[in-house]
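Customer escalation, tier 2.

The customer says the design service returned an amino acid string that "doesn't look like it belongs to this structure." They asked us to rerun it and document both sides in this ticket. The original structure tokens are below, unchanged.
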């Protein structure tokens, strides 16, 4: 599994001539890193007298963001597995008309599944950004830049996943599915962009006041 590799091993595999892991797994990794940074800011806030009034809220945020981090971490491998399934479908025999039909249906099914994985990354990054926004507003101001980086990583994860959604949609024949997923993806991306800007505005206020 990719998540069991060292950072160096993962990067070496990423840099190789193998198409997977690729951008989808990196997008999930970026989101997981953003979630982890959000947890860090929470943990640097918990136990500080200056932030006594937000202790319970920070503890709740940690619990929820850690769940999202686990989900994003799992999506690193799920994205690569989905890509491998698409490649396996393309590798099916196509010598007869029947084989061609089976192969075409398998490609469509696998591509749909591969589209839903990055969409899940997008949704999870969106949920995580809600917590990053809370942390930027109420967390330890000495870690304001970390909250900003957390938001930027989540934004990058979402934006990267959106590209993977779009490229997969281009290979699908189900126009209703394509339209629905495209609309969902665009809505999430816009919401993530808005929240990221809110976080960065908070970070700028904190850094400017320091």
């Amino acid at each position: 599994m990719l998540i069991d590799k060292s950072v160096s091993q993962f990067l070496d595999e990423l840099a190789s001539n193998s198409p997977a892991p690729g951008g989808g797994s990196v997008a999930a990794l970026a989101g997981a890193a953003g979630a982890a940074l959000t947890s860090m800011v929470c943990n640097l806030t918990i136990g500080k007298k200056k932030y006594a009034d937000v202790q319970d809220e920070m503890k709740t945020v940690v619990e929820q963001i850690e769940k999202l981090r686990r989900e994003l971490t799992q999506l690193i491998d799920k994205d690569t597995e989905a890509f491998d399934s698409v490649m396996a479908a393309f590798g099916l025999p196509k010598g007869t008309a029947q084989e061609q039909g089976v192969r075409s249906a398998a490609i469509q099914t696998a591509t749909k599944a591969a589209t839903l994985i990055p969409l899940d990354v997008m949704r999870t990054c969106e949920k995580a950004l809600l917590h990053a926004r809370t942390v930027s507003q109420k967390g330890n101001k000495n870690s304001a830049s970390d909250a900003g980086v957390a938001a930027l990583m989540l934004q990058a994860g979402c934006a990267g996943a959106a590209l993977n959604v779009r490229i997969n949609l281009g290979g699908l024949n189900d126009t209703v599915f394509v339209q629905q997923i495209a609309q969902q993806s665009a809505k999430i991306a816009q919401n993530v962009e808005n929240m990221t800007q809110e976080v960065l505005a908070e970070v700028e206020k904190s850094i400017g006041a320091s």
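Tier 2 assessment: The sequence is consistent with the input. DSSP finds six helices and no strands in the chain. Residues 21-209 form a domain with the Four Helix Bundle (Hemerythrin (Met), subunit A) fold (CATH 1.20.120.680). Sent an explanation to the customer and offered a walkthrough call.
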